[in-house]
Amino acid sequence: MADWLEALDRLAHERAKAGLTRQLRPRAAGDTVVDLAGNDYLGLSGHPRVIDAARQALETYGLGATGSRLVRGSTDAHAALEDSLAGWLGLDAALVFSSGYLANLAVVRALSAVCDLVVSDAYNHASLIDGCRISGLPVRVAPHNDPAAVAAVLDAHPGRAAVVTESVFSVDGDLAPLAELYRVTSSRGALLIVDDAHALGLLGDAGAGGVAAAGLAGAPDVIVTATLSKSLGGAGGVVAGPAALVRHLVDTGRSFIYDTAPPPAVVAGVLAAVEVARAADDRRAVLFRRGAHLAATLHRPVPAAGVLSVPAPGPEAAVAWAADCRDRGVAVGCFRPPSTPDGSSRLRLTVNAGVPEEAFARALQVILECAP
Ligand SMILES: Cc1ncc(COP(=O)(O)O)c(C=O)c1O
């Protein structure tokens, strides 16, 4: 075997010994597994209005966008989705990307034009971390959810900084102190970038997200990013903020310019999902009731939105727990290092308002019975 393949084999062996091997499991069409692992919080991925809109756009435009929007032109669907997202989030303008990951890469990098430091929460998602890396700016990692620590970094820094956080954190589902963070950033001339991936559709009036819920929609120097793949059940990402920022991203955002645009059918489906999500207080009520019930049963804090994490004794125990649930027809997330910021292992449960009531109750029973 070639040297480099032997080296990869050795690394795979070390990961296996540490319980860190990842498995790709087949997912059959018509899968009847109860989903408490995905992020289809409002159950919109299969909503009839969403499917209809996507089907019509598929027939109109074909399967793919066939190129970057700068090269192939920008469809009505893309423009309509951007208007709709900006209006929903209460911001001037929005730009869609083909994933939330790429939106985060673009926005942090873009701010290197006007900032000279990034301050990043220790629990931030990999896409924000990678955005910080490719920005080329010095990065200071702030302790998780600690506005005083952020203030200390900013006070010691004479230039303009960008502070990057999630609103609802993806692993533990806890809420960032956004209003406090904004007091810190706005009083020190810093920008605040908030990844609203796990709050969009769930928090705030009409589900306008965590930034809106904190009273910061449209506040100066606040930029919002989100994925369109969670509560909106589709795919893609968005950066929303002042029109000048969107202009800057169109001109310089490498993951916008050099990436094929999200497929028009997906964009049209997501546009329909935004309309459904804005009016979905009933689905949000189901989600919060279920989250509170899960938390009470598993003796965990009530989740801020749809993510709840349950500690496991170690990576192997977490994997075995998730596998046993799976064997009994319940999909749950399993997070281990390096995907957990504090090196511990846990199940991650995501509440899905689209799961029938009886299936949800059964799933909870299965999780309890399979616990280590
Ligand atoms: C907080 C957060 N930001 C960004 C992303 C990336 O979004 P996408 O899956 O659309 O690339 C995710 C997960 O998917 C996430 O949890």
UniProtKB/TrEMBL annotation:
This is 8-amino-7-oxononanoate synthase. It catalyses: 6-carboxyhexanoyl-[ACP] + L-alanine + H(+) = (8S)-8-amino-7-oxononanoate + holo-[ACP] + CO2. The keyword Coiled coil does not apply. Belongs to the class-II pyridoxal-phosphate-dependent aminotransferase family. BioF subfamily. GO terms for molecular function: 8-amino-7-oxononanoate synthase activity; pyridoxal phosphate binding. The lineage of its organism: Bacteria, Bacillati, Actinomycetota, Actinomycetes, Micromonosporales. Residues 32-367 form the Aminotransferase class I/classII large domain. Signal peptide: none annotated. PANTHER family: 8-AMINO-7-OXONONANOATE SYNTHASE, CLASS II AMINOTRANSFERASE/8-AMINO-7-OXONONANOATE SYNTHASE. Keywords: Biotin biosynthesis, Pyridoxal phosphate, Transferase. Its EC number is 2.3.1.47. Homodimer. It comes from Actinoplanes italicus. It is an enzyme of class 2 (transferase). One of its GO terms (biological process) is biotin biosynthetic process. Pathway: Cofactor biosynthesis; biotin biosynthesis. InterPro entries: Aminotrans_II_pyridoxalP_BS, Aminotransferase_I/II_large, AON_synthase_class-II, PyrdxlP-dep_Trfase, PyrdxlP-dep_Trfase_major, PyrdxlP-dep_Trfase_small.
